[in-house]
């Protein structure tokens, strides 16, 4: 991992935190909005993982996003990686 990669990953931390906090806030009132935020967080987490590398990502996440459990981060990334399925779910939830 280069300094540029670490810098890129660190620049994603505020976006990930904000999307996670919004997802948690919205889960009680708007499931479709919560899902949108979870997907946004997941997409940023995927970019961070690519930047820091697979082996270093777990440690990076623990150091920089300790309030997001591993299982939640994994779920967010899975949602983001299956965006078309997630969009279908958003459509169903909006009905």
What is the compact description of this entry?
The protein has 95 residues and is mostly helical. The protein has helices spanning 3-26, 31-52, 54-64, 70-81, 83-94.
Describe the structure.
With 95 residues, the protein is mainly α. The chain has one domain (3-94). Helix content is 85%, strand content 0%. It contains five helices and no strands. It has helices at residues 3-26, 31-52, 54-64, 70-81, 83-94. α1 (3-26) runs antiparallel to α2, α2 (31-52) crosses α3 (54-64) and α2 packs antiparallel against α5 (83-94). The radius of gyration is 13 Å and the shape is elongated. The protein starts with a helix and ends with a helix. The mean pLDDT is 85.
What overall geometry do the principal axes of the alpha carbons give? Answer: elongated
Query: What is the SS-derived class?
Result: mainly alpha
| Strand percent estimate | under 5%
Report the strand count.
Answer: 0
Number of helices: 5
Q: Outline the biggest β-sheet.
A: none
Rounded to an integer in angstroms, the radius of gyration calculated over CA atoms is 13 Å
List keywords for this structure.
single chain; 95 residues; mainly alpha; 5 helices; 85% helix; elongated
Write the layout of secondary structure elements.
Elements (H helix, E strand, L loop, with lengths): L2 H24 L4 H22 L1 H11 L5 H12 L1 H12 L1
């Amino acid at each position: 991992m280069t300094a540029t990669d670490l810098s890129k990953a660190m620049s994603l931390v505020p976006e990930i935190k904000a999307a996670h906090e919004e997802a948690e806030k919205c889960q009680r009132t708007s499931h479709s909005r919560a899902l949108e935020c979870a997907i946004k967080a997941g997409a940023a987490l995927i970019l961070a993982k690519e930047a820091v590398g697979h082996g270093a990502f777990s440690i990076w996440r623990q150091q920089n996003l300790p309030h997001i459990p591993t299982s939640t981060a994994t779920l967010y990334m899975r949602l983001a990686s299956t965006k078309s399925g997630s969009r279908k779910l958003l459509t169903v939830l909006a009905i």
